[in-house]
Amino acid sequence: MKDDVPNLKDFDQRLRDEANEDLADIIPAEATKKTQIIAIYGKGGIGKSFTLANLSHMMAEQGKRVLLIGCDPKSDTTSLLFGGKACPTIIETSTKKKLAGEEVKIGDVCFKRGG
Ligand SMILES: Nc1ncnc2c1ncn2[C@@H]1O[C@H](COP(=O)(O)OP(=O)(O)OP(=O)(O)O)[C@@H](O)[C@H]1O
Ligand SMILES: [Mg+2]
Q1: Residue 112 in contact with residue 60, Cβ under 8 Å?
Q2: What ligand 1 atom has the least distance to the C-alpha of 50?
Q3: Nearest CA to 99 among 107, 88, 91?
Q4: What pLDDT, on a 0 to 100 scale, did the predictor assign at position 110?
Q5: What SS3 state is found at 13?
Q6: Proportion of the chain above pLDDT 70, given as a percent
Q7: Contact 69, 40 (CB under 8 A)
Q8: CB 81 within 8 Å of CB 12
Q9: For residue 23, which phi and psi values (nearest 5 degrees)?
Q10: Cβ–Cβ under 8 Å, residues 112 and 32
Q11: Ligand 2 midpoint to CA 101 (Å)
């Protein structure tokens, strides 16, 4: 019975390690005819973040290449994918980089989870 309960502390660390994985294997490419772009919007609290986080993860597990872009400053979608940890927003990161006189790279604003 004891073994049925997952060790959430380890799980949490695993998600954080996965988020920090090197993104060198992600090759930026132009959209192709096969590329599907899905935009979702609507009234507050109807389940947008919940649905998209699960849908994205499921499609990634099926081997599809998925890029999920969240526009919510609450970071609900990324928190769901990264064990409660909100990924820094693009605006937050680019502001810091700009102030430091540095260029924003894809790995600074893109985090990997579940492939
Ligand atoms: N199909 C569902 N069944 C039960 N609960 C759900 C379902 N979808 C979402 N929820 C729950 O409803 C709440 C609101 O969902 P969610 O945060 O995804 O909504 P949202 O549309 O993204 O809200 P917001 O507009 O504030 O960003 C969350 O607690 C979520 O876990
Ligand atoms: Mg939301």
Answers
A1: no
A2: 18
A3: 91
A4: 83
A5: helix
A6: 74
A7: no
A8: no
A9: -100, 15
A10: no
A11: 32
45: pLDDT confidence band, cut at 50, 70 and 90?
A: very high
* Residue entry with tokens 């990264």: 82
Closest CA to 86 of 95, 96, 97, 76: 76
Residue 8 pLDDT class (50, 70, 90 cuts)? low
Residue 20 CA to ligand 1 center (angstroms) comes to 27
Token pair listed for 4: 């049925």
Q: Where are the domains of the chain?
A: 2-18+36-109
Gap from CA of 21 to ligand 1 centroid (Å): 28
Structure tokens at 92: 């937050």
Provide residues with CB under 6 Å of ligand 1: 44-50, 72, 76
